[in-house]
Specification:
Structural class of chain A: mainly alpha
Helix content of chain A: over 70%
Distance between the termini of chain B: 26 Å
Number of helices of chain A: 13
Number of strands of chain A: 0
Strand content of chain A: under 5%
Number of domains of chain B: 1
CATH superfamily of chain B: MetI-like
CATH architecture of chain A: Orthogonal Bundle
Number of helices of chain B: 13
Helix content of chain B: over 70%
CATH class of chain A: Mainly Alpha
Number of domains of chain A: 1
Order of helices and strands of chain B: HHHHHHHHHHHHH
CATH architecture of chain B: Orthogonal Bundle
Oligomer: heterodimer
Chain lengths: 260, 257
């Protein structure tokens, strides 16, 4: 029953991963003799340190903001019957479903006469685009996960005297905690791997090799150094994998459906 | 805390939501204004550019998106169902691989995928692109999360006692309880495929095999409000159809807490 999925997983996921890992051992510009030390040697590249700071900036400013906004709006939508609810979610979703190029086009055209982009503030523009294009999809998903809480549970809590805020914090959030964990892991990975937004802004001359993924791309496709590029790409995985391990250890993230 | 009372002050929530929505909406009103005022004329120019090559790309994109959508949605939802509900060996390993392969940057995967697709002689063909794009770990893991909370083991046990096999449990219990999941997974899979950029760029060479996002980029660069509006249309339609499934009661969990 699961065979088609496993076939696709092996062919499109696992095998390429194995090939990528074997690729790292080959000679690279940062490691001419070729060995797995490329994995950390590539981190000494002069472009990596600023890119790391950029990633940290997005991680600390935008990831928490995105999580809070997504949960707040989903909970508000779920709190009462709002007419035009589907439309509201659609509007938040729009920036996420326009192709990245169009999103940058809009932002640039809207802001460019008023704001002058410099190395110091371009991070806010990238974060802003990322924010606007990510929250909508997660609002749709989290609203869906909130809707899957059975009405009887909510009614019981209401009968027990829960007000809206208590209902949201004590009942709803714990019930969708798995989805929140999933969202956190993916948002963190997305921020570290950000590529499209800074890449489309290279016209400003400020965002060439701005993100780690751009540096990795430069290695692989501009210098033809696949070993270095892949090594850096796998380095980018470390924070999300650590986060995933924490979630798996601390919560029932990977547990099967249970008896109630 | 009467302010948060479950029966009162609903209007504050509504006003807050609508205000935020209005702010988010502004850029799109601008985009729509930018695409006009001669909407039909602009669209016609677009379709006639390059001797109608745009129509070929549209056809390629449609074939690719629809085929990959069917394969990815079916395989990932069934996969997630099995991982959440049935006993299979290496269940956790499969989940971990799903999670890891979802997180790997496409930069690292594009080249190996190219090599593999080339090995099976599907390079520069829509079929190869379909094969390479149909793995949808995001959908599978979301389905796993959904079924592991919305389909309690009790219910599966009852189904077993009634003599249902795996497929029958999926069909009679899993599918009716997961309408919103189908809506969400199909919608996001569609967006992914329709806007798919890096894989088609690596896997397809000839202009006549290209898909819409790649081709349009060649023609227009970053700009083009008409292009933006056009690319949005199918996604909007699918959103409105799929959102009908997300109504409380139709799909909510079978058993209470």
């Amino acid at each position: 029953m699961i065979a088609p999925y496993i076939f696709l997983m092996v062919f499109c996921g696992f095998l390429p991963l194995v090939l990528a890992v074997t690729e790292i051992g080959k000679p690279s510009w940062v490691n001419l003799h070729g060995s797995y030390t490329t994995i950390y040697k590539v981190l000494t590249d002069f472009r990596v340190v600023p890119a790391l700071w950029h990633a940290l900036f997005l991680l600390l400013c935008f990831v928490p903001l995105m999580i809070v906004v997504v949960l707040a709006i989903s909970l508000l939508l779920d709190a009462t019957a709002v007419r035009g609810n589907t439309f509201i979610r659609l509007i938040f979703l729009l920036p996420g479903i326009v192709p990245g190029a169009i999103a940058v086009f809009i932002w640039n055209a809207l802001l460019s006469p008023h704001v002058k982009w410099q190395a110091g503030n371009i991070g806010w523009l990238i974060g802003g685009i990322l924010f606007s294009s990510s929250v909508g999809s997660w609002i749709v998903i989290q609203y869906g996960s909130l809707r899957s809480i059975s009405p009887e549970v909510l009614e019981a809590a209401r009968v027990d005297g829960c007000n809206r805020l208590e209902l949201a914090i004590q009942i709803k959030l714990p019930m969708i905690s798995k989805y929140i964990g999933y969202m956190t892991i993916l948002l963190v990975a997305g921020v570290i791997q950000i590529f499209v937004e800074p890449n489309l802004l290279t016209g400003t001359g400020l965002t060439t090799d701005w993100s780690l993924n751009q540096v990795s791309y430069s290695y692989a496709f501009r210098n033809g150094d696949f070993a270095g590029g892949t090594a850096l790409a796998l380095d980018m995985l470390i924070p999300s994998i650590l986060l995933a391990i924490i979630f798996i250890r601390r919560t029932d993230f990977l547990k099967k459906s249970e008896r109630t | 805390m009467t302010f948060f009372d479950a029966k009162k002050n609903g209007w504050i929530i509504k006003v807050t939501l609508w205000m935020m929505t209005f702010v988010v909406m502004l850029p799109f009103l601008w985009l729509i204004k930018q695409a006009g005022p001669n909407y039909i004329g602009n669209a016609r120019t677009l379709f006639h550019a390059q001797d109608g090559l745009v129509l070929v790309w549209l056809k390629n994109s449609a074939i690719f998106t629809i085929s990959s959508l069917l394969i990815s949605v079916l395989s990932s939802i069934i996969g997630g169902f099995v991982l959440a509900v049935l006993y299979i060996p290496f269940r956790k390993t499969l989940l971990v691989i799903t999670l890891i392969t979802m997180l790997i940057p496409i930069t690292a995967m594009a080249m190996p995928l190219y090599v593999l697709i080339d090995k099976v002689h599907l390079h520069d063909s829509i079929l190869g692109l379909i094969l390479a794009s149909s793995y949808y770990p995001f959908g599978a893991f979301l389905s796993y999360l959904y079924f592991s909370s919305a389909l309690p083991a009790d219910l599966v046990g009852m189904g077993r006692m009634d003599g249902l096999g795996d497929w029958a449990i999926f069909w009679h219990l899993g599918v009716p309880l997961s309408k919103s999941l189908w809506a969400i997974v199909s919608f996001f899979s569609f967006i992914n495929l329709w806007n798919s950029y890096q894989l088609p760029k690596v896997l397809l060479d000839s202009p006549t095999h290209s898909t819409l996002p790649i081709g349009l980029e060649l023609l227009f660069g970053n700009g083009g409000a008409v292009v933006g509006v056009l690319m949005l249309m199918p996604a909007l339609a699918l959103y409105l159809v799929s959102q009908r499934a997300i109504e409380r009661g139709i799909f909510s969990g079978a058993v209470t807490g």
